[in-house]
Design brief:
With 460 residues, the chain is mostly helical. Helix content is 68%, strand content 0%. It is built from 19 helices and no strands. The chain starts with 6 loop residues before the first helix and ends in a 19-residue tail after the last helix.
Length: 460
């Protein structure tokens, strides 16, 4: 019948020649390298947090000097040598993927050099004790490594630069969270680029392989541990779950809006001082973060995964390891101030910690016996609210839970939180990418953006 697939011809096309198999091997090899890079990034970031923790444990006042000094040093170094590494990394990847971005400008946002600079700068920020994460930056790190494969691929490979960047960015999420499925969904929902039929299977394989490298290094557990949730009926979670979802939507939308405001710059004295003296401003923000770290006894530092693990382990009595309402507020402020410094870092991890704190707060206020379930809902809801990617947030948290009893609850929470957030703030990553594209289109004589480095200083 005319139009039916020709099995033998399709088989010959798939088998191809030696060069086609070499191209496939190159992509797979770079997927392995991407996974190894994220593993190394994780180990370096954890080592930096460990050094900070030991220093703070020996001298409680040390962060008051150490944090502002190292924050200023990192900001100065990045602005001088690698301005494209500043911020989260996700907006840079989106900008590199935009068809309107000239090829000659793509290296400003994604490259192997920026990947190395990103790893060092984020680790420096964690060593300083800022409230930042490495999951978002892993997107830019992995995309830069995968894009480097282009120089070894043949022109007839059929694999575009855009596909390599999408696969790399998604592989970064897969490896950072030990969630290969989450990486695939992130590629579809956030990076939002269609892979060509000819190479989509190879790109998906690269994403999964990068995630499996992380799994083989750290085991089949997420960075926040495994969330064990007992079977809970819908009715038992209806009221507290709705409170968690709405609270996450409101706070997450506010955080997103604050980050966009600090990114674009406002006509106030703080933003004016930041434009005039960015390094000194970073030091002042670092000092404020250090004060918060001292007050919270270090719980707000970094991603906050240790505090989140403690909440999950003591979900029946969260007050024993958690300062109700106080931690959530302090972590929120510390994350915003850390973003305002200009130090490279992400918001994925801190969002999960803030959401866990909010879920624990609701469980404490209502004396709910379902603390673990509300903590999981909070993690999902706040991440969905900040990033406005509800499906990715749901998948990431779902892969942390044992069983599938929470799937519908997580989905409902993510969708509601994202909806509430959209009423408060524009989408964080895509808006930053749009502003970066606008700066690319401006002629050299045009007035500079509100922040001199705004074209390459997105956060998230």
């Amino acid at each position: 019948m005319k139009g039916e697939p020709d099995f033998l011809q399709n088989l010959r096309d798939e088998m191809g020649g030696a060069r086609q198999w070499i191209d496939r091997a190159i992509v797979i090899a770079y997927a392995v390298l991407t996974g190894l890079a994220v593993v190394a990034f994780t180990l370096l970031a954890d080592a930096a947090l460990d050094v900070y923790g030991r220093m703070r444990g020996q001298w409680w006042w040390a962060p008051l000097l150490w944090t502002p000094a190292l924050t200023a040093l990192v900001v100065w170094a990045v602005r001088r040598w690698a301005p494209g590494a500043v911020g989260s990394g996700v907006p840079q990847v989106l900008t590199a993927l935009d068809p309107a971005t000239p090829l000659r400008e793509r290296s400003r946002f994604v490259s192997l050099r920026l990947s190395v600079a990103k790893i060092l700068a984020v680790s420096g920020g964690l060593l300083a004790g800022l409230s930042i994460g490495r999951q978002g930056p892993s997107v830019q790190v992995a995309a830069g490594i995968m894009l480097h494969a282009r120089r070894w691929l043949s022109p007839a490979s059929g694999i575009s630069d855009r596909e390599l960047i999408v696969a790399g960015g998604a592989a970064g999420i897969a490896a950072a969270f030990n969630t290969p499925l989450g990486g695939i969904v992130f590629a579809i929902e956030e990076l939002s680029r269609r892979l060509l039929d000819r190479s989509s299977g190879l790109m998906l394989a690269a994403i999964v392989i990068a995630g499996l490298v992380a799994v083989s290094a750290f085991g089949n557990l997420s960075y926040f541990g495994r969330v064990r949730v007992e079977a809970v009926s819908w009715w038992a979670l209806l009221l507290p779950g709705a409170l968690v979802a709405i609270g996450c939507g409101l706070l997450g939308g506010l955080l997103s809006r604050l980050m966009l405001a600090s990114f674009t710059g406002l006509p106030d004295r703080f933003c004016a001082y930041r434009r005039k003296r960015p390094v000194a401003f970073a030091a002042l923000c670092g000092l404020a973060v250090a004060v918060i770290a001292v007050v919270s006894q270090g719980q707000t530092v970094g991603v906050g995964h240790e505090h989140t693990k403690a909440l999950l382990d003591h979900s029946a009595d969260v007050a024993s390891v958690h300062q109700p309402l106080l931690f959530t507020g302090l972590k929120f402020i510390a994350s915003w101030l850390s973003a305002w410094t200009g130090v490279p870092g992400g918001i994925f991890g801190p969002s999960l910690s803030i959401g866990a704190g909010l879920g624990a707060d609701v469980a404490w206020l209502l004396s709910s016996p379902h603390g673990a379930a509300l903590i999981a809902l909070g993690m999902c809801g706040f991440l969905a609210a900040v990033t406005q990617t509800p499906i990715t947030a749901m998948i990431i948290v779902m892969e942390m839970t044992d069983g599938h009893g929470m799937v519908l609850s997580l989905m409902a929470c993510a969708l509601l939180s994202s909806l509430v957030s959209r009423m408060i703030s524009r989408p964080l990553y895509s808006t930053m990418s749009t502003l970066m594209m606008r700066s690319l289109r401006e002629p050299p004589a045009a007035s500079p953006p509100a922040d001199p480095s705004a074209a390459s200083v997105p956060r998230g």
